[in-house]
Amino acid sequence: MELYLKISYLNDFIFCPLSIYYHQLYGRLSERLYYSDSQLNGKAVHEAVDNKHYSTHKNLLQGIEIYSNEYNLCGRIDIFDTDTGLLTERKKKIDTIYDGYVFQLYAQCLCLREMGYSVKRLRFYSSDDNKIYPVLLPEENREMFVKFKNTLEEIKNFDVMSFVPSNPQKCGNCIYNDFCDRPASPKIYNGGF
């Protein structure tokens, strides 16, 4: 039996595979212990969607649970417009669209499609600056879709015991740095070590 992977772990795995382990280990503790202010602010952006208070329009699905048997994924969407087929992932502020962001949106798209919905367009919405970033569908960007599937395979075959972090910049900015048993660098404060 294969377990379902939480969609949010796709971005975490790319940042650092150990972060998934730490999510599980510290997930029930107060997030204030390890979340940065920007992460707490980002979480607040999702509250209206998660609590289904973003909109009362019947065509807008918000915060629903989704799954894919084909890809062994599960999670939640932010907003899906059933009339237009537009899937929107909200972020607090987008400076860079990382592969992990796109993979999360792909996973949501694939789950919705497997559940019978017609997803026609994808986008990110950056709430701080009110910007929209369109994203090509998986079938429109073959290279990125292959990277997505390869990442799923890497996660499936990941060996936590043999992993050694190699990016000091990522380690220094990681919310779990203070708890990690093998950081590549100390915590970064104000851009310095």
How would you describe this structure to a colleague?
Helix 1 runs antiparallel to helix 4. The protein has 193 residues and is an alpha/beta fold. The strands form 2 sheets. A 5-stranded mixed sheet has the order 2-5-6-7-8. Strands 1-4-3 form a 3-stranded mixed sheet, covered by helices on one side. The protein has 6 helices and 8 strands, in the order E-H-H-H-E-E-E-E-E-H-E-E-H-H. Helix content is 35%, strand content 17%.
- The average pLDDT value, as a whole number, equals 83
What strand order characterises the main sheet? 2-5-6-7-8
Structural class from helices and strands? Answer: alpha/beta
Q: Which word captures the global form?
A: globular
**How many helical stretches?**
6
Q: How many beta-strand runs?
A: 8
Main β-sheet, in a few words? 5 strands, mixed
**SSE string, helix = H, strand = E?**
EHHHEEEEEHEEHH
Q: Separation of termini?
A: 44 Å
Low-confidence stretches: 189-193
Strand content: 15-25%
Share of residues in helices: 25-40%
Radius of gyration based on Cα positions: 17 Å
SSE layout:
Layout: E1 5-6, H1 9-15, H2 18-26, H3 37-50, E2 60-62, E3 65-68, E4 73-76, E5 79-81, E6 86-91, H4 99-114, E7 121-126, E8 131-135, H5 142-156, H6 168-173
Parallel strand pairs: 1-4, 6-7
Antiparallel strand pairs: 2-5, 3-4, 5-6, 7-8
Helix pairs in contact: 1-4
